[in-house]
Specification:
Layout: H1 2-39, E1 43-50, H2 61-70, E2 75-82, H3 86-98, E3 105-106, H4 113-121, H5 129-133, H6 136-141, H7 144-150, E4 169-175, H8 176-181, H9 191-203, H10 218-228, H11 232-239, H12 249-261, H13 274-282, E5 288-292, E6 307-310, E7 316-319, E8 327-328, H14 334-359, H15 369-377, E9 382-384, H16 393-408, H17 414-431
Parallel strand pairs: 1-2, 7-9
Antiparallel strand pairs: 3-8, 4-5, 4-6, 4-7
Helix pairs in contact: 10-12, 12-17, 16-17
Length: about 425
């Protein structure tokens, strides 16, 4: 035993020495690479991107790597990869703006409507209009609906857009095997069928929905706003920027739906973020979760064949392509800003190529989760605007984060919930 332990110790020590040596060599290579870029006067473009805590994947890694290869020796996107939720990243944007530590390119800005407008007013982000208008190639890459979504009322553009809305839509992911276990053969086509489906799943001992309340209550809000858009008044309400009241029929309808949804979710849904809802879905603790195209790659390989994607009942998808636009911070040098704009154009081009590849019938695989999504997107759905780009940030961050749990637990009524939403309007206006 002692001899075996000694041999193992030697092996461990040797392995450690190899790791240390490799780390040192890697560090040297990294330093040499950085020094080479500096020597060759490569323009460094700082950026912060997140690492998905559920999968460990680096978000947007492909476009960064492809750009750095294409522009090697001229531009280099220098990414600081951070393990943060989307909500944490957005809060840190505000902090970094105050301390003047923003990177040259920022994402998710349109998810913070009031902060975005403030950045425009104070000249903190570049007006990209002249860049796009003077570049016909870039303009031609952008779908008209996407261009319109990023254009402000005065005609200016501050967000480098994606090419297409094809990757910007949300619907419902659902587990076919759990459905079949409850005797359900297809996704519900109407909201009446949806609620019956929830009851049937629950009766079979299956939790219908993976939900949460933190992070602007993304999953339940997708369902509630998709349902309210079924009426003419509700659809018009969802198109309003900064509604002046929620104490109306659509507002009360949304509140009632939110309360009802939480009758069909997991016990850990309250006071948790989307990550918990995602974990419950992939662990098959719940049969459905609302989310967008981007979650397709986050579904584990072993689940891909049992998970389907559908529009919300009544053939609706939720999407606002402007939320995928990225901005260039104005305080950087002209060289850095020029490189950042070139990167945004490169991203638009890559997005266009990806759309063309996906929609090419020769490359599509029938019966896959991706094929489900493409059928939903090309099936002429009603596109409902994303509430996150329409409602004030205080409502999203505070009211939904705090009052929704109280509503679900019966501590406040639907009317009191909408009153809290209206109070956020007054507070928001006072802070402007």
């Amino acid at each position: 035993m002692m001899g075996k332990k000694t041999v193992n110790s030697r092996r461990i020590m040797a392995a450690v020495m190899v790791i240390v040596l490799l780390a040192a060599l890697t560090g040297c290579v990294g330093k040499e690479d950085t020094q080479t870029r500096k020597k060759n006067k490569v323009v460094e473009i700082p950026m912060i991107l997140t690492v998905d805590s559920s999968t460990g994947n680096k978000n947007e890694e492909e476009v960064v790597e492809r750009f750095n290869r294409a522009y090697k020796g001229k531009y280099h996107i220098d990414v600081d990869w951070v393990m943060e939720t989307e909500e944490e990243y957005r809060k840190n944007l505000k902090r970094m703006n105050v301390t003047d530590e923003l990177p040259a390119i920022i994402t998710d800005l349109r998810m913070l409507p009031s902060f975005y407008q403030m950045m425009i007013r104070k000249g903190r982000i570049e007006d990209l209009t002249p860049y796009i208008n003077e570049d016909q190639e870039w303009k031609d890459m952008i779908e008209p609906s996407v261009m319109e979504s990023v254009r402000e009322e005065d005609g200016k553009i501050y967000l480098g857009p994606v090419s297409t809305a094809a990757f910007a839509c949300s619907g419902v992911f659902w587990n076919r095997e759990l459905y079949e276990r409850a005797g359900i053969s297809r996704f519900p086509e109407t909201w009446e069928e949806f609620w019956k489906c929830c009851e049937k799943l629950k009766a079979a001992g299956i939790t219908p929905l993976a939900l949460h309340t933190e992070g602007t209550a993304w999953a339940p809000m997708l369902l509630a706003t998709a349902e309210v858009a079924g009426s003419e008044e509700g659809a018009a309400f969802m198109k309003q920027l900064y509604p002046d009241t929620y104490q109306n029929e659509p507002g009360l309808k949304i509140a009632g739906t939110l309360k009802k949804l939480f009758q069909y979710t997991t016990q850990d849904a309250l006071h948790n973020d989307f990550d918990i809802a995602y974990d419950n879905f992939v662990a098959e603790n719940a049969a459905m979760i609302p989310n967008g195209y981007w979650m397709i790659d986050q579904i584990p390989d072993e689940m891909q064949k049992k998970v389907c994607f559908s529009t919300f009942p009544e053939n609706k998808l939720i999407g606002s392509p402007e939320t995928f636009g990225w901005a260039v911070v104005s305080t950087y040098s002209e060289k850095v800003k020029k490189g950042a704009v070139e990167f945004l154009k490169f991203r638009t081009k890559l997005n266009k190529e990806q759309k063309e590849e996906l929609l090419n019938s020769r490359t599509r695989q029938e019966g896959t989760l991706l094929d489900d999504y493409l059928k939903a997107y090309t099936g002429n759905p009603q596109i409902v605007p994303n509430y996150q780009v329409k409602w004030n940030s205080l409502l999203q961050e505070d009211v939904l984060g705090e009052c929704l749990a109280d509503l679900v637990q019966g501590k406040i009524t639907e009317q009191e919930f909408t009153q809290a939403e209206d109070e956020s309007i007054r507070q928001f206006e006072d802070e402007q």
